[in-house]
Amino acid sequence: MLTSLAAIAAFASLFDPSIAAVISISTTSAPVNGSSLVSAYTIPLNNGTASLPSPNNTLSVITAGRGTQNYTCATSTSSSIPVFIGATATLFNLQDLLPILSPLEGQAILSALPPLLLSLPREALQGSIIPQAGEHFFDASGTPTFDLSASGNGMLVSAKLADIAAPEANSTKGPQGQGAVDWLTLSAKEGSWGLSAVYRTETASGQAPATCDGMHTSFTVEYCALYYFLSD
Question: Which of 65, 73, 159, 205 is the most exposed place for a label (fewest CB within 10 A)?
């Protein structure tokens, strides 16, 4: 079995082959045998002090979302506080790549992926062999939407059920030292098909600064997170 560092290099090299060289580990001499099915994976629910509600349906799709959290400011002074207005992200399908790892290694690598993917140039992700599962966006009414229809996985028009703070000790900070956006779970609303809920966990960056001091009227903060989709 690969060591954790070697497994990270092997998985990351699928996005950018130069990573393996940087870490100085061969990704071809020690392949991992065995199958890693989606059902073998567990959704992280606990941040150390609080938990998201347990899932009631079947885990069907595991993705990494890379994009931006979007905010506005009334003024560019410390008297204004950033207001969240939505998010956009490309969803990369991870489950087809999990069989290169054992489930034990795979679970650990999934947790380590968001900060790694956040550190990579977007063009490296877009040009990688990782298939795109779909897109995450907020529709005209402000509803968080996950369109996985192009990959045949469904559409989730959602409402938030619960959220907890990202674990402070393990969170990847944003460009101004701000923390990671919350972990949360959302459930299906009218207009959904094929998907019943999603969990956002293992978030990296995305929080706005504490105030609008020096910020533009509209601005974005890069983030990455794991999205675990459920189906009935």
Answer: 159
